[in-house]
């Protein structure tokens, strides 16, 4: 018993050491952005190496009672394996630059050791989904000659695999790893600092007060809070765990079911990953892949995100009407003081400073650094508790360092997948196959791409999910005739929404226990209330003016698209929610008719959407309100 206690005590010591190293990692990231320019290979390998050690220390295997002291052997072995691989990586680095790398048994063994450590520690961070996908692609690379039809290729030897996956600048240490290390990690630190300054509590307080007079106000407040913090989180699950503990009980107290409360939090947190200006840092990778300025991609994401949330608000409102949930009584509505409004600056000033840095031409990394500094300054100035506890700054940097380490491991594993994809050419063949379908039926090609994105994205954090799907699927719908920006935005949407799609629905598995609900039922509710968000990608593919910066922009198309989207939102929300603020609870026939009208409004053909918009106006202006039963009896 004493040995067990001693082991657990030592494990907690290593966790503190891991957090200390994570703090150092954050300081290194900030310092490099502010003052230094590193050799790209050194930066990529160094970021991954320190990430491996941070994860091994902060999530020690010794905490697993089944492993006991053998856990220490595992952790020391993983760290030693990666350090051994580091020695060989830097020995052959000059050969990698010149292209004259030659595989030897020694450096192959070293690469395998590093790759095994990377994959094993990724399981601790993200579970098995990411690793299983990587192992499937590795097996696909070796089994090429034995595969049928479209999947057949020349195959790989072990030396070939190690060269593309480890000893090149296309695999684990490829361009994407460099892009994330250079531009994305600072935004994870930014989100961690914002959370520690008390910005979350201020945002929930203000959102609750502003939405309390609306039916279902608590759920609306949760949507706002989760949207703001979701855009800065690299993980849907992390955002749900962070904000859901506050918002889900608040939604339930107002009268919504446990499954609905969990679904609202999951849908809002998922949507936050698509909300500009940060979009869970996927915006920086997308801008690089599409070849557009970051500001243009941010602008393009604005209207789709707006309508996604309008649809979510409408679904919540319809549910509140159906359940006869009234606004909060006046005496229960929080009264916002001047201090509350001042505290709102904890959220909005850092984001405004970040955006101003973008607009003024700063790099994404420097803009993120400006946001971090502004968040710390506003926290010290506006939050007395933050000022009294300056150690919160160190805690925030440690939190950000751990998040950065975890995302680096995920991106490293994705690098292996991308290396196999590039070597085998499967992405090009897959793209050609979907494009050939798209020549006759673009809708069918988009549906195939949607299911491919949902399947590939299941269980993955936002950025790794987008990376793999952007390489595999975006080229397919571009070949089918879709604008590159619209294609990448399309696959990003479904990479994110894979978090609410059963049977994996990993976001729902985080939210449902908090609410006391059922994860599978929660996922179906989340799908229902996210219907507009799921359909918006189809809208901007066929009406790219919704993206504002598309090459085929038209004010007329934009105006008509907005009009039919508003009609679709109302009809779909009332049909699926089963209630309308004018008509009250709807019957089955009324819901079916509204569902047809909403679906028709989504189609780009004028002979479908024009009558649908007209029918929506007719419903809104001319259908009478139902007469309350008491009033009818009094006559």
From TrEMBL:
<comment type="function">
    <text>Part of the tripartite ATP-independent periplasmic (TRAP) transport system.</text>
</comment>
<dbReference type="Pfam" id="PF06808">
    <property type="entry name" value="DctM"/>
</dbReference>
<feature type="transmembrane region" description="Helical">
    <location>
        <begin position="96"/>
        <end position="118"/>
    </location>
</feature>
<feature type="domain" description="TRAP C4-dicarboxylate transport system permease DctM subunit">
    <location>
        <begin position="113"/>
        <end position="550"/>
    </location>
</feature>
<feature type="transmembrane region" description="Helical">
    <location>
        <begin position="592"/>
        <end position="623"/>
    </location>
</feature>
<keyword id="KW-1003">Cell membrane</keyword>
<feature type="transmembrane region" description="Helical">
    <location>
        <begin position="341"/>
        <end position="359"/>
    </location>
</feature>
<dbReference type="GO" id="GO:0022857">
    <property type="term" value="F:transmembrane transporter activity"/>
</dbReference>
<feature type="transmembrane region" description="Helical">
    <location>
        <begin position="562"/>
        <end position="580"/>
    </location>
</feature>
<keyword id="KW-0813">Transport</keyword>
<feature type="transmembrane region" description="Helical">
    <location>
        <begin position="278"/>
        <end position="303"/>
    </location>
</feature>
<feature type="transmembrane region" description="Helical">
    <location>
        <begin position="492"/>
        <end position="512"/>
    </location>
</feature>
<keyword id="KW-0812">Transmembrane</keyword>
<dbReference type="InterPro" id="IPR011853">
    <property type="entry name" value="TRAP_DctM-Dct_fused"/>
</dbReference>
<feature type="transmembrane region" description="Helical">
    <location>
        <begin position="407"/>
        <end position="430"/>
    </location>
</feature>
<feature type="transmembrane region" description="Helical">
    <location>
        <begin position="365"/>
        <end position="386"/>
    </location>
</feature>
<feature type="transmembrane region" description="Helical">
    <location>
        <begin position="524"/>
        <end position="550"/>
    </location>
</feature>
<feature type="transmembrane region" description="Helical">
    <location>
        <begin position="442"/>
        <end position="460"/>
    </location>
</feature>
<keyword id="KW-0614">Plasmid</keyword>
<dbReference type="InterPro" id="IPR010656">
    <property type="entry name" value="DctM"/>
</dbReference>
<feature type="transmembrane region" description="Helical">
    <location>
        <begin position="70"/>
        <end position="90"/>
    </location>
</feature>
<feature type="transmembrane region" description="Helical">
    <location>
        <begin position="44"/>
        <end position="63"/>
    </location>
</feature>
<feature type="transmembrane region" description="Helical">
    <location>
        <begin position="125"/>
        <end position="144"/>
    </location>
</feature>
<keyword id="KW-1133">Transmembrane helix</keyword>
<feature type="transmembrane region" description="Helical">
    <location>
        <begin position="467"/>
        <end position="486"/>
    </location>
</feature>
<dbReference type="GO" id="GO:0005886">
    <property type="term" value="C:plasma membrane"/>
</dbReference>
<protein>
    <recommendedName>
        <fullName>TRAP C4-dicarboxylate transport system permease DctM subunit domain-containing protein</fullName>
    </recommendedName>
</protein>
<feature type="transmembrane region" description="Helical">
    <location>
        <begin position="164"/>
        <end position="194"/>
    </location>
</feature>
<keyword id="KW-0472">Membrane</keyword>
<keyword id="KW-0997">Cell inner membrane</keyword>
<feature type="transmembrane region" description="Helical">
    <location>
        <begin position="214"/>
        <end position="240"/>
    </location>
</feature>
<feature type="transmembrane region" description="Helical">
    <location>
        <begin position="20"/>
        <end position="38"/>
    </location>
</feature>
């Amino acid at each position: 018993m004493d040995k067990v206690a001693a082991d657990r005590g030592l494990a907690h010591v290593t966790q503190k050491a891991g957090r200390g190293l994570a703090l150092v990692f954050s300081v290194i990231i900030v310092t490099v952005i502010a003052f230094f320019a590193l050799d790209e290979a050194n930066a990529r390998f160094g970021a991954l190496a320190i990430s491996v050690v941070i994860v091994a220390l902060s999530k020690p295997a010794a905490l697993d009672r089944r492993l006991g002291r053998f856990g220490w052997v595992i952790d020391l072995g993983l760290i030693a394996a990666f350090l051994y691989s580091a020695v060989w990586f830097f020995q052959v680095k000059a050969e990698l630059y010149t292209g004259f790398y030659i595989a030897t048994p020694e450096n192959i063994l070293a690469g395998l050791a590093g790759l095994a450590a990377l994959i094993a520690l990724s399981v601790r961070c993200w579970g098995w989904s990411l690793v299983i996908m990587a192992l499937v692609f590795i097996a696909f690379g070796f089994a090429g000659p034995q595969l049928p039809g479209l999947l057949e290729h020349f195959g790989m030897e072990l030396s070939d695999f190690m060269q593309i996956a480890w000893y090149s600048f296309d695999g684990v240490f490829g361009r994407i790893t460099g892009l994330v290390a250079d531009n994305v990690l600072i935004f994870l630190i930014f989100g961690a600092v914002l959370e520690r300054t008390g910005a979350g509590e201020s945002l929930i307080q203000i959102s609750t007060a502003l939405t309390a007079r609306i039916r279902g106000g608590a759920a609306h407040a949760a949507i706002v809070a989760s949207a703001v913090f979701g855009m800065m989180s690299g993980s849907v699950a992390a955002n749900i765990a962070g904000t859901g503990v506050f918002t889900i009980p608040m939604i339930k107290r107002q009268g919504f079911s446990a499954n609905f409360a969990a679904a609202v939090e999951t849908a809002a947190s998922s949507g936050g990953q698509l909300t500009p200006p940060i979009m869970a840092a996927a915006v920086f990778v997308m801008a690089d892949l599409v070849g557009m300025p970051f500001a243009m991609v941010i602008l393009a994401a604005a209207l789709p995100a707006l309508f996604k949330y309008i649809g979510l608000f409408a679904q919540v409102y319809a549910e509140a009407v159906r359940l006869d949930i009234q606004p909060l009584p006046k005496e229960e509505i929080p009264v916002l003081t001047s201090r509350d409004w001042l505290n709102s600056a904890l959220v909005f000033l850092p984001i405004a400073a970040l955006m101003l840095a973008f607009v003024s031409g700063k790099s994404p990394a420097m803009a993120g650094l400006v946001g971090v500094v502004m968040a710390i300054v506003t926290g010290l100035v506006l939050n007395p508790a933050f000022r009294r506890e300056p150690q919160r700054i160190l805690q925030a940097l440690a939190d950000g360092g751990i998040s950065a380490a975890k995302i680096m491991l995920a991106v490293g594993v994705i690098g292996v997948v991308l290396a196999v994809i590039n070597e085998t050419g499967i992405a090009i063949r897959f793209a050609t196959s979907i494009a050939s379908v798209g020549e006759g039926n673009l809708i069918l090609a988009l549906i195939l791409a949607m299911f491919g994105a949902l399947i590939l994205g299941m269980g993955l954090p936002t950025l790794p999910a987008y990376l793999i799907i952007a390489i595999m699927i975006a080229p397919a719908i571009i070949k089918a005739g879709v604008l590159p920006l619209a294609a990448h935005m399309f696959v990003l949407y479904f990479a994110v929404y894979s978090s609410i799609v059963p049977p994996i629905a990993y976001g729902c598995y985080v939210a449902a226990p908090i609410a006391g609900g059922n994860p599978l039922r929660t996922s179906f509710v989340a799908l229902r209330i996210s219907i507009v968000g799921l359909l918006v990608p189809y809208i901007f593919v066929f009406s790219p003016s919704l993206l504002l910066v598309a090459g085929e922009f038209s004010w007329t198309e934009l105006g008509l698209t907005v009009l039919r989207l508003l009609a679709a939102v109302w009809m779909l929300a009332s049909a699926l929610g089963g209630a309308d603020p004018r008509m009250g609870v709807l019957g089955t026939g009324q819901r079916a008719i509204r569902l047809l009208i909403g679906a028709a409004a989504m189609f780009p053909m004028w002979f479908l959407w024009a009558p649908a918009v007209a029918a929506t106006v007719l419903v809104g202006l001319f259908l009478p309100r139902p007469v309350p039963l008491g009033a009818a009896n009094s006559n």
